[in-house]
Amino acid sequence: MGIIAWIIMGLVAGTVAKMIMKEGNGSWLSSLLFGIVGAIVGGWIGDLLFGGGRLSLFNPISWVLAIGGSCIVIWVAGRFLGARR
């Protein structure tokens, strides 16, 4: 996928993951960052499970993996950032 597709997928995946994880606070930039990192994590998990080359912007599995990866990233970030408060 191209960089623009990763950014679009990251923004959408991060926003959906924040709604799922009930992490409504934060800016669109945090949604974008969580989403892009989550898409990378989800893509890595997808490559391990399904093999490479099947993931794309228009594949529903890619979206599920990106949102799932974003949820994992938000959960991990919450544990590390929550411990510092």
Describe the SSE topology.
Blueprint: H1 3-20, H2 28-50, H3 60-84
Radius of gyration: 13 Å
What's the number of helices?
3
Strand content: under 5%
Helical amount? over 70%
Class computed from helices, strands and strand pairing: mainly alpha
Number of domains: 1
Give a structural overview:
It is a multi-pass membrane protein. It is found in: Cell membrane. Keywords: Cell membrane, Membrane, Transmembrane, Transmembrane helix. This is GlsB/YeaQ/YmgE family stress response membrane protein. By secondary structure, the chain is mostly helical. It has one domain (3-84). Helix content is 78%, strand content 0%. The chain contains three helices and no strands. It has helices at residues 3-20, 28-50, 60-84. The chain is globular.
